[in-house]
Queue: 2 jobs
Job 1
Amino acid sequence: KNIKLDEIEFYPVSGNLQTAERMFRANEVDTIETLVITKVPVYKRDNPSVLRLEPFVGTYFYRINVTRPPLDDPRVRLALAMSVDKESICNEVLFGAFTPAVALTPPGIGGYTAEAGISYDLAKAKALLTEAGFPEGKGMRDIEILYNESEDHQLVAEALQDMWKKGLGINVTTNKQEWKVYLNSMTSLNYDVVRAGWIADFLDPMNYCECFTTNNGNNRTGWSNATYDELEKKARNEIDPKQRFAYMQEAEKLLLSQTPIIPIYTYRQRYLISPELQGCDGNLLGYMNYKYMSVTRNKP
């Protein structure tokens, strides 16, 4: 008795964000789930009432293949991470659509916010690289960034390429692959550095902590640490909430110090909604609750 819609039509064009945005402008659809990144400033300026930028429990990061020298050296990995200016990426490259991330878990998930973090510190990054035997990048082999087809991913990859070249003196190439090939390359550890992301399945930091245990299918870095595995196990079996979080804090601190990943930003949903569509409220997991929606068509 509370349902107002008779039907919902879905158009499978999510792989082509430009097409989806054009359909919205042509009033062919009432909402699109992802707005092409370059259009964010346009809608902010010209039509802010239809633009939604809302919190989303997901982290965009880069995996590092720790089985490949010199990336097997934690000092090299941390140098790469600390030379990434995430504020610049989020605000200048990605048009203010996302929030810089210093840790793997999004802040506030399930009441948990990571105490550890990797912040931008180019001087420390240079010192670490020198300590590892590559002053100003000398003697360091070329590093390849792998990413799948998407304008967002290309913009970030090119930003890191520039930062690592100018900041550390490291030559970096980029490699764009089709989705299935990209997944296979990542799973088989056929990469140096690869773009990645994790969106929570449920609102609890354990959903992030478990990903980087040894042999976890979502690890895909070659990194393994017995202490981390034990901390994750303790957190999983702990019933006291405070102690449970303490174990995960310790685990995340260890993960970031070993740096098999480079956090880049916390996701935000960016989508468009027609003024004719009501009841379309976002939530942290990004699910649309269709039973509350209704449409009021404005007559021409």
Job 2
Amino acid sequence: DTVLYRNVALAVTDVMPYAFYKNDVVSTLTFNNKGSIGTSAFEECVSLSSVNIPQEITSIGDHAFKGCKELATARIEDRTTVLPLGKKLFDATALQDLYIGAKINYINEVSRDASPFCENTTLKNVVITDVEDHIYDYEFYNCSALEKVTVGDGVEGIGKWAFSGCSSLSEFVFGSNVSVIGEEAFS
């Protein structure tokens, strides 16, 4: 929440775009700031192994964690506020476990290329809590290693092609309120 610069404590609000781009030393992150994470802020931080997004983070820009080759776990902490996410957040990572404890929305238009999670070929387990009320079109499109998904009771709809191409999917736990499943959601 603060950074010391020339013996002056400065409050941290936003992590600006490209702030730690290609930093090969950062291995863990603890966010204490109340602000956003900018576009490509941690892109290609090759030593980063996990990330925990607390409720104080207000948005995450495009490609924020792209190319973090050791990043295996991502957790969006439980919150009641909406968290806007940019596209391809975890592209070219080793992401295996994802926990979504928030209602998310896309910063960009809803499309296959706008999804923060689609086409991740290492993602294996996803937990979506009761806070979320729907899964977007293409949200996990072509996550070919995805094996297990648990959806909370708050989710009422699953979008078109949301899990299309998830050829390893062997266990899917539906919440009790799912009433709409979009076109080719599981093709």
